[in-house]
Amino acid sequence: MAFHRAVPNSAGRLGSLLEAFLPWLGLVVVVLLVLTLLRRSASALMALLLPVVAWMHLFGGLLLPGPEPGPHDLVVVQHNVSDENTDPAGTARALADADPDLIALEELVPPTLAVYAQTLAPNYPYHAVRGTVGLWSKHPLTGARLVDIKPQDIKESWSRGLRTVVHTPHGDIVAYVAHLPSVRVRASGLASSHRDESAGLLGEAIAAEELKPVLLLGDLNGTVDDRGLAPLTSRMNTAERGFAFSFPTGFPMARIDQVMARSATVRQIRTMSPTGSDHLPVTARIALG
Known about the structure:
Elements: H1 14-20, H2 25-39, H3 42-59, E1 73-80, H4 88-97, E2 102-106, H5 112-120, E3 126-130, E4 133-137, E5 141-146, E6 161-168, E7 171-179, E8 184-186, E9 189-191, H6 193-207, E10 214-219, H7 230-233, E11 257-262, E12 264-271, E13 282-288
Helix pairs in contact: 2-3, 4-5
């Protein structure tokens, strides 16, 4: 069991709060290392070995260079475009310039939805939208439908899940696009019950999926280390390489924009240049087969 799992989630979801910023604990180790070297304390240096080894075990592999692209690789882009984005056309062009196979978007609202559709259409003739989430593709899409991930006590209109089949040159894949509820940090701790409930519903839908491979792209409002996303991370692969901190744009602290896969491998994930959103886009390379 990882050391951070020892922090309970029963009071204020403190475990999830810690896990949201877990990679940054490496900075604490660096500061302690500098102080130890200044004091020239051999015993303190030995005591630091455990947290250094723990951090490297959890995150060291993300720093390694990724493998060379393979013949069956799929490139995808995931972006919460923000419902307050004042330049949807510029955002769409920036995403298309990366030339991915798939582009998943969240917070699509009228009238900007029409702008995204029109701007992406020349290079992405196939798209599906359900509620405020959508997928644009170079390859044909079929069977698009809503995935109900709405928490039980949300009464207003709320549609943030999409499932479709993508017919790629390397075979069919199932793609899910999702936008889980936001979390809030309060004096009482992390308010994430809606996010956790929605993650559970999405995990059940993916577990029941008979086709494979399966891709999940979305703003999941949680990191892959957050136990609140365990219904998803326990069933799917996460990126082998890259941190790709995506939020907030001004000073990215965490990657809450995720690309996961089942029966496929997320080789590498990285951020792209800022757009008019408060999230950075992320792009990932998926190895199929």
